[in-house]
Amino acid sequence: MANMTILGAGLAGLSTAMMLRGDGHDVTVLERDPAPPGSRLWETWQRPGVNQFRLPHFMLPRWWQTLSADLPAAAAEVLAAGGSRFSLVPPPQREGDARFETVTARRPVLEAAMARAAERCGVVLRRGVRVSGVRLESETRVTGVTTDGDPVSSDLVIDCSGRRSAMPAWLAAAGVTPPAEERDDAGFVYYSRHFRGDRPGLRVMVQQQYASVTVLTLPADDGTWSVVLIGSTRDHALRVLRDPATWTSVVRRYPLAAPWIDAEPITGVDVMAGIEDRLRHYAPGGAPLVTGMVPLGDAWACTNPSLGRGAAFTLIHARVLRDTLRDTDPADHDKVTRRFHEATARTVLPLYRATNGFDKHRLAEMDGDVTGAPYQTDDLRWIGAKALYAAALRDPDMLRAYLTVAGFLEAPDEVFAKPGVRDRVLALGVSAPQYPLPGPDRAELLRLCTA
Ligand SMILES: Cc1cc2nc3c(=O)[nH]c(=O)nc-3n(C[C@H](O)[C@H](O)[C@H](O)COP(=O)(O)OP(=O)(O)OC[C@H]3O[C@@H](n4cnc5c(N)ncnc54)[C@H](O)[C@@H]3O)c2cc1C
Q: Which atom of ligand 1 is nearest to the CA of 129?
């Protein structure tokens, strides 16, 4: 068993810590931000290390299923903290629909529950410790980190310090080639608001696409939820949505979302833009830049969050590391690092690329709505995704096929390969209107924004 140091106590750091501790490793997590307060987490927990801390977070069924299977004590802790059970399928439900269930909560509640579970299983969580660099034994072998206090030695350093990870800069400062990055402003802007009250029931689906905007209605814990309008950052006309009165009058015109704002708002309209898609290449051509250090979660790759996949990605990636360490002697840092990068490229990278591809198409479609030049593509994956979405609104079997993808339970290729799905989607979805749900078209949205 080895001694592991994890940088960052976000969802990636905590999940990974628990998985490795469960296999008997000694695990220490270093986190720069202070500990959660004993109560009133939502109002008072200070987390400058996580920009999105008070923004909507929805946990997908894939996250919940993986958590329940691999970290049952953490799943129990999330439920005990008030995590809310929710099914992606609106009533009536039928046999087999349990796979679409999840448990979700606001991020502070979720993270505090995960941290409690981590400490209960023997993870050492050191808060208020800022990592400042890496320690190297040879030119490329990481043996620990420096902090604003004492240095920390480790058999394996796991970078879970999030999308703004300073690891590339630390490597460069230590004389190591930093990773090349694929980086792009995702181009979306989020106008979100949290509410409290009697949560309305789900009528169709949580993600609703309309001309130039996507609307999300996301349940959370303790009688709270959020409603999000997502637009393109190029769509300047939508900037007025930061005004709560305008935001409210716009959301009221979307019949599926309108009941979700008839409650007490517990935030103003939170606006977030400039979220980058970013992928860091720590093993170009399969050859790791360093050994003894692996990046995981957002520190390795992150996407725009409109599909809500970040936390699920994190658990999938943590499993990859756990399984690599099960199959490889942890003392063989060279082999561990190489095998981890290989397994990441094989299993997680395709999920990242698919998520990123969907986002790019959706953004181009929204931008087309704004300019009035409808988006055209011959990419069958996007055409299939649009057709499946439309078919889901007309057929309960296709709804389940769509939710299998939306819940991140299976890839679109797997779903389309099932008997009858392709034909049914072709019959119901291909000739459907671009935006089949009832709601304002672009002209009406503009009128609402300028009223
Ligand atoms: C607006 C927005 C909405 C999102 N919504 C969803 C959603 O609905 N569903 C979903 O699944 N995902 C969502 N995500 C993504 C999700 O937040 C992350 O993917 C997920 O939390 C995994 O992040 P992480 O743990 O890798 O990084 P983070 O959560 O960023 O955690 C990194 C941690 O590292 C610490 N740290 C950083 N530097 C140092 C240092 N030098 N020393 C010590 N500690 C350090 C930070 O303080 C922080 O605690 C959203 C993201 C954004 C931006």
A: 43
Distance CA 157, CA 122 (A): 18
What angle do the packed helices 72-80 and 61-70 form, to 10 degrees? 120
For ligand 1, residues with CB inside 6 Å are 7-13, 30-33, 49-50, 52, 55-59, 130-131, 160-163, 166, 190, 272, 275, 297-299, 302, 305, 308-312, 314
Strands 3-7 and 156-159: parallel
What pLDDT, on the 0 to 100 scale, is given for residue 285? 93
Q: Are 120 and 146 in contact (CB under 8 A)?
A: no
185-272 domain in CATH 3.20.20.70? no
Token digits of residue 358: 């969907």
Residue 34 to residue 330: CA distance in whole angstroms: 31
Residues 6+ apart with CB under 8 A from 447: none
Task: Name the residue ranges covered by the structural domains of the chain.
Answer: 3-183+279-356, 185-272, 375-433
Residues of the chain scoring pLDDT < 70 = none
Q: What does the pLDDT read at residue 100?
A: 98
Residue 1's pLDDT is what? Answer: 79
Give the domain 3-183+279-356 fold.
Answer: FAD/NAD(P)-binding domain (3.50.50)
| 80-102: burial string, b at 16+ Cβ within 10 Å, e else | ebbbbebbbbeeeeeeeeebbbb
pLDDT digits (tens, 9 = 90+) for 231-251: 999 999 999 999 999 999 999
